[in-house]
Amino acid sequence: MRFLTQISFLFLFLSVVSLQAQIKFEAKVSKKSLGVNERLRVDFEMNKDGDNFVPPSFSDFTVVGGPSQSISNSWVNGKRSYSKSYTYYLAPKKKGTFTIKQASVEIDGEIYKTLPVTIKVKTAVDKPKDGNNASYEASENIHLVAEVSKNSPYLNEPITVVYKLYVGPNTGVDNWRETDTPRYNDFWSQNIDIKGIKVTPGKYKGEDYRYVILRKAVLYPQKTGKLEIEPLVLDVTVKVPTNRRDIFGGRLMKQIHLPVSAGRRSINVKPLPEGKPSDFTGAVGDFDFKVTTSKTQLDASESLQARVEVSGKGNLKLFELPKLNLPSSLEVYEPEHSENVRTNLGGMRGKTADSYTVVPQFQGKYPIPSISFSYFDLETESYKRISSEEIVIDVLNGPVNNATSDNNLITGNVKQRVVLSNEQFAFVKSNPNLTAINSPVFFKTTVFWASLLSPLLLIPLTIVFMKKRDERLNDVEGNRIRKADRLARKYLVEAKRSMGNKDDFYEALERSLHNYLKAKLNIETSDLSKDRIQSLLSGKQAVPDTITEFIGLLKSAELARYTPFSKVEMQQDYRKAAKTISAIDKQIR
Questions:
Q1: pTM surpassing 0.85?
Q2: Domains within the chain, CATH numbers bracketed
């Protein structure tokens, strides 16, 4: 018997061991060596359903997809086959050798763990390929492109950069956000507003795609040589097809986050040709130039505006305007600079100007000499110069400058001595006779200390006031008495004003008593008989003595119409009425 028991125990032990040996939980990777720009697929598979799955931390990788769960349950030749897996897609953060640590799951009350897996990450490969990776599939259908209008511009020649997001026909994009915005170092830049996102059919490397324009910018290179345009980087939410199908046979879509970059673009900026004119200040484009004045005839001490203006297409904000050369007898103020420039994909257009305020001091004729403006013309790739016309300012009336020539013409090349009259600055007093003002010192005065300490003294007063207010609000009985007294005074105010006139006083007193009852008992005037009043007040739990006094007051008011009453009796009846109304208001419920 003992032998049979041992055999049975051994058989049971072997069955349990055999059953446990059949349970598998392992980690499988798509590759153990990959480039830093490739993606890794990790599957945690079990052959029996489990709960409480805990993945490893993936601290050396970025999870770009997953976890996704799949279950396979089939019967082959009467034998059941079951598989359940959790799938992750990983992107390595850097080169090196890393370990994917253990994952755990609970199966039939037991905890099972995978073995660690070592992954070697090498330098980037030319073209990462991993057909099992959803990110790879998306990367083959999502492309961010920076289209540059010209790769070899001149210095200060405008170029445009247009960022387009191309999407394949079988891929859907839900959303995107910028994770890195391009910085245009060594360029003057202007972003162009985009009104609305429009999907447009197009071609990418000869294939049919759709694209949207995300960003536009106009750049003016400020240095020669090789310049870098930093990339625009997006995080795109993409829908990609999977191997699973719905009940109608259509492929199910999966949503992933895909980082895409437009890549760096190199621009080779050419210097401007040799032979720059002496008056060249960096203008590049196609321009017009002119000098104008608001008037050519005026009197001394009047003012005119001389305007130097450049208009056209080019780098209007990036060069200096030529300066006016005026005779010394003309008082000239610093110019006021103005710009009316708009920027689109073709570059800057508009005009820029310096406006001078000129005030002549003496009568005579003053020429504004011709000045020139030079620029580099991109069409002909040559320098061009435009000269303004000479303008003569005729000052008709004013003091005479003795240093002028016989023909009263003052050239711009000869500096004339300006003799100012004694009244030139008459409006400025040279001896204003100012006296010191002995203002009182405020610091540490009585007013100073009072202003400083008064807020502190208000604190205890405020506390006492608030305490008294709370006590008053909590005094229910006192509040009720005060309310009753106010009510009595309210209804008897008319009677008090008629004190001394018997008829008016008792008429007002009777009306006040009636109005009080109508308000408190909600009754009409027709119901105000003495028996009705006594019955209502008794029903409201008023004290009988108080009711008797109230009825007595009504009788006194009626009797006063036929008998004489003194002022003393009126005052007594008034006080009695106030006392009775207050008492009733406190007693009735």
A1: no
A2: 19-126 (2.60.40.10), 136-269 (2.60.40), 281-395 (2.60.40.740), 476-587 (1.20.120)
